[in-house]
Structure prediction request, 492 residues.
Amino acid sequence: MSKKLTSRAEDYSKWYNELVVKADLAENSAVRGCMVIKPYGYAIWEKMQAELDKMFKETGHQNAYFPLFVPKSLFEAEEKNAEGFAKECAVVTHYRLQNDPDNPGKLRVDPEAKLEEELVVRPTSEAIIWSTFKGWIQSYRDLPLLINQWANVVRWEMRTRLFLRTAEFLWQEGHTAHATKGEAIKEAELMNNVYATFSENFMAIPVIKGVKTESERFAGADETYCIEALMQDGKALQAGTSHFLGQNFAKAFDVKFTSKEGTKDYVWATSWGVSTRLMGALIMTHSDDEGLVLPPSLAPNQVVIVPIYKTDEQFEEVSKIANLIKSDLNAKGVSVKYDDRDTYRPGAKFAQHELQGVPLRIAIGPKDLENGTVEIARRDTKTKEVIAIDNLTSTVERLLEEIQNSLYKKALDFRDSHITEVENFDDFKDILKNKGGFISAHWDGTTETEDKIQEITKATIRCIPMDTKEEDGKCVFTGNPSKRRVLFAKAY
Prediction:
């Protein structure tokens, strides 16, 4: 199969779909709407997971695991949450198959094996976790309870796209309980900040921290904090959310604690999560028409070494130096792949590693050995230079840091140049059609206006930015008084 991708300018959606498959990240599975994450894609996800897990533990959280199945009665306990996810739920009704007497060699559901209570395949875990927390929390001494789980969830999406929206996906979900409202709000804000730090420092993706409008909040939350990123096609992507749940789930599952003063009260709660959707954000923020562009902090292989040779003797000589280089770089914490496959020519290897976004490529052949040099190529800028082997380790460390910072700056410049303030609806529609990106505009605060703008333009309020200052203005749609700007955009 040809490795050449459809260009982003020609068809951004097709470019994305092709890139995910051709770069060996993921593919569609035999299950409708579900994906197989391939080893190279999973290696990137593992690096995300490891860094996030470290950040969660540094902020006092512990990992646990809860069941995939949620009894329907528990799922229904918190009404807003149940209603919010009801249309996306997969439900288990039977527990056994049997041979089908009418179709030899086929199986059917055993009608005698109907479950006494139907089980919802978790679309999110608040219900099963809060029914468990009831047995874990009795006193103020049990608080705060800071739990995270790495899991899969199922949301029966009708329209799916690899990583961005699939019927089953991987994620982490944090669930915490607190003695006071203030502590819970502080926790929700803290975890949103953790997500922002991870996105910017490790994914090299600038984000805007904000809160969702009432209609965009998580079902069952009193407040939803979020980070919003901007993709190269001018569409926004919600990269993470953190929810202040108030006492809604505590009341639904009767989770109370005895305070120091001996009084009983419901605990205050949060939940927060990011998913394999981050893979989609990573791809769409940095990649180009030649393939993936990965920030070094998340690249499975930060450096690839490709030998250039004609004879077995040359290969042995080159390999000896290449392996020494690899050992030196490994000792500095740099992940290196020595691509010594004899089934591919150097050009094919170059193309593959370019497609898969390896940040730095080192080529070394007999002439390089004579000169004591190697050729080093950057994936992000496609520039090449000849470097003395003696200076290679320090050069690689410097270039990896430069690439990480450069990718962030490029994405930040693009994002900032695509935040446009508008004062009237005609300009709003024009910017949305011809420029894209975030539109900063006044909104009158009503759900009716929010819904009408979405109906006309397909743009939604992505967030009310945390750093928004109050200013007198008029709603971009109704002309009614407004005290602050919000960010609109079309979104994934």
